[in-house]
Amino acid sequence: MPEKRARRHFSQLSEFERSLSIGMKTAGWSTCRVAGQVDRSECAVRNCWEQWTREGTHVWKTGSGATRTTTRREDRRIVRQALVDPTVTRSTIRADVGVAIVPRTISRHLAEANLKSKCPFRALLLTPEHRQLRLQWCQARSVWNVTYWQKVVFSDESRFVLGTDDNRVRVWRRPGERYNFPTLFYVTLSAQLV
C-alpha cells in the first residue's frame, strides 16, 4: 500500500463519508465491505456505526481535547499583566492569577494575544557631555591605520555565562514594538566610560 494511501486510510472520516458509511451499514453491508468502499479503516467505520446506534447522530464531536484550567477572565488577566508590566515573569503571573497552571499555558495565552518573550532593546541615554567625549575619542584615533585597530578588543561583543542563570531581563512585546517606551531600556553610563 503506498504511503499516501496508508495515511489516508487511517485518517478521520469526512462528513460525507460518515453519512455514506451509515447508509451502507443500514442497507446491510458488512463493516469490511464499507471500509473498502470509502477507503478507510474498519475501525473508523465501526466507531462511526457505534456512535450512530448509541447516540443517533453521525456528527463528529469537536472539543474533545483537554479541559481548560483557566476561565476567559483569567486569560484576559494574564494578557493584561504582560501589557501593563512587560518585564513580568511567568511565575509572577501564575501567582497573581491564583490558578495552578504550568508556565507553558501562560506562554500559550500570551502568544494568542501576539505577545512574545524578547530581549529588550537597550538604548544609550547620551548626554551632551557623552557626545563631546565620544567625538574627542574618535578625532584622537582618526589617524590610526589597520595595524592599530587590530590590537583593539571591544569588550561588549560577547556575553559569557558560567552559571545556569544569565540574569537577563526579558520583555513581553508584540512584533513592531521594539522601540516603544515600556519595552525600551535606557542604559546610563558615567562620563569616564564613554
UniProtKB/TrEMBL annotation:
One of its GO terms (molecular function) is DNA binding. InterPro entries: RNaseH_sf, Transposase_Tc1-like. It comes from the Eukaryota. Residues 75-140 form the Transposase Tc1-like domain. It holds the Pfam family HTH_Tnp_Tc3_2. GO terms for biological process: DNA integration; DNA transposition. This is Transposable element Tc1 transposase. It comes from Trichonephila clavipes (Golden silk orbweaver).
